[in-house]
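debug: dumping io for the single-chain case to check the tokenizer round-trip. Nothing else runs in this session.
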Amino acid sequence: MSEKDFVLRLVGIISKPHGIKGEVILNIITDYPNTIIPGLVLLLDDSGIDSLEVEHIKNPDFTIRKSAIIKFKEVNSRNDAEALRGRKLYRKDTDLPARKEGIFWIDDLIGCTVENSNGTALAKVIEVYNGIANDSLLVKKLSADIKISGIKGNSFYIPLTEEFIKNIDTELKKIIINKLPEYI
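debug: decoded output
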């Protein structure tokens, strides 16, 4: 790591002001929305310098929607809130709950190289999609020479299931697959 002894994890993006007293609507991205509570300090952008402390949170039922109305102690007017529109909020990884075995942060998977069991690099993860049945990796082929049945473009999906994924090593930024998905 650099000078910092922590990594920043994206929590959400401020959508717009709500009312006239400095509240904002926060679009939640984190897998742990219930940990956004009064007293939590969130960092603006990825510099890790400017911070905001959660004063209170309204409608925190994240099963219905992926947003909440949040009031920060430092933001006391609609104009202050408007200045935050579109800003990303982060938290230190040291402030996150412990991960269970086999659970990964989405931003740890993005950028990983996808290899077959022979060690041949095939693709790079560019996005992770949360599905109803399972999550999927959107990957981009590293070379046009890589042929996959049913794929005409450079990108395709790999389901995040044991059938397709053999091993994930976020330290080495490497995902080893059992097999490629076949598209008809």
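debug: round-trip ok. The radius of gyration is 20 Å.
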